Amino acid sequence: MCISVSAPEFCSIDFETSLNYDPSPVSLGIDFLLPPYRSFQIKGSCRGFIFLSHHPDIFLWNPSTGFKTQLPWAPKYLYECHYGFGYDQSRDDYLVVVLSTDCEIEENPFSSHLEIFSIRDNRWKEIEGTHFPYCGGDHDNGLLFNGSIHWLSCRIDVEIYVIVAFDLVDRKLSEMPLPDYFHHEVPSDSCLGVFGEFFGLWAEEPRNGTIELWVMKEYKLNSSWTKTLVIPLSNYFNPICSTNNGNIIGKSYSSGLNGLVKYNDKGQLLEFHSFHDGRPSSAILYTESLLSLPGDNKQDCKLEE
């Protein structure tokens, strides 16, 4: 697990061990200057590479090898964005995906653009069928699962919430329904995650004063949504991953519990790890690898019309 501690320092934690292990932050070593008030956000992870962003800078970084490369910003970037990063096995290609929307344009409220950056082709391409009717939060990160990138999004033409999936091989968007319990609406602090081998939804339930974990026992089958874990809503909790024995690790933000926390499958707090510089700005699960990126990324980038 990679944690952003304070720009541009990061640390890595083995989430299967105790959270009380205190690793020393390491500098990225990116060879450009950043003003002290700017920081990178972790936007995605795939096959050992981490997607870092701070507008207008985008980097892919392999912490295991120290390799890093800078990518150009999406040409049609708008204010509200869904981000994603994944691997297309059929083409041996890594893709950065940006679904951006300007929900304030009155004459065309569906003004969305779906763009992908191919590492192999070293270019941005706008996916046909633009003006998709999806509007997300500001700078939402996509969840990589089963060869697709997923986002929670509002379908603004019918005003319901759905899960949007972008297939990295077919390069097409599709929709997945939320659990029927939510009636096409989700609480503001909901997020997607992978829990064990299952695709999941983590949702705050203020009516019950709890945070609930729903998992899809069979991918894309709506009837397979199952509520598996309930935690009392005493702290703001943002899940990151689950361990092999079913424990849940995430970030907790509160006056007395500010850092990494670990809960068991019954919702009981097991461990807490506070960071010296305050709460981590972002964190993501990643797998160490010595892989390199395909293609030559030193050529000028191109935009395919």
Automatic annotation (TrEMBL):
NCBIfam families assigned: F_box_assoc_1
Record-annotated F-box associated beta-propeller type domain positions: 11-236
Matching SUPFAM superfamilies: Galactose oxidase, central domain (SSF50965)
Protein name: F-box associated beta-propeller type 1 domain-containing protein
